[in-house]
Amino acid sequence: MKNTKEKEKNFIDEITTEIKKANKLSEVLKPETFAIPNGWADEIVRQLKKGKSGTSLKTSQLRKIFAEIKDICDKKIKGLSEDNTELYLLYPKLAYAKGRNLLPKDFYNLLVACLDKLKNSTDKEDFKAFEEFMTAIVAYNKQYE
Questions:
Q1: Which InterPro entries does this chain map to (predicted)?
Q2: How many folded domains does the chain comprise?
Q3: Which of 1, 25, 8 is nearest to 112 (CA)?
Q4: Is residue 135 part of a domain?
Q5: What is the pLDDT of residue 54?
Q6: Does residue 92 lie within any of the structural domains?
Q7: Are 125 and 30 in contact (CB under 8 A)?
Q8: What's the pLDDT at 10?
Q9: Cβ atoms < 10 Å from Cβ of 2
Q10: Domain that residue 133 falls in
């Protein structure tokens, strides 16, 4: 049986695995799972603040990523864009941030798993779920500043 520290260490990886296994992002990212206290978003932020992977996520970097994700999701939800160019361009931006140690590896893997689900999706619910998930992460991040 894993002790608490080992369980915390693998929490973001466990969520990433669940997202990869799901058929759709909206099937796995549900507010009752990620938005509640001690839910996924809260636990992700706590883990990121501890800097377990050697890199802690700075608020400015999180907000920068969130602004781009929100813009993309808003356009998809409102039906203003069917083009995925902006979504595809997020991959190298995230890789660059990870390479400069501005983005923890486990959080990078989580975001890439979400983008992989979105790149082939036309379902507005998937984009809405991802935007709400990221909003919850930003909000919990503010709590722990």
A1: CRISPR-assoc_prot_Csm2_III-A
A2: 1
A3: 25
A4: yes
A5: 67
A6: yes
A7: no
A8: 75
A9: 9
A10: 11-16+29-144
Q: What is the Cα–Cα distance from 129 to 1, expressed in whole angstroms?
A: 33
Three-state helix/strand/coil letters over the chain: CCCHHHHHHCHHHHHHHHHHHCCCHHHHCCHHHHCCCCCHHHHHHHHHHHCCCCCCCCHHHHHHHHHHHHHHHHHHHCCCCCCCHHHHHHHHHHHHHHHCCCCCHHHHHHHHHHHHHHCCCCCHHHHHHHHHHHHHHHHHHHHCC
Domain membership flag for residue 21: no
Tokens of residue 93, six digits: 């931006």
Q: Is 79 domain-assigned? A: yes
pLDDT digit string, tens, across residues 61-84? 999 999 999 999 999 999 888 889
Residues with Cβ within 8 Å of residue 35, at least 6 apart in sequence: 41, 132, 136
Q: What is the pLDDT of the chain when averaged over all its residues?
A: 90
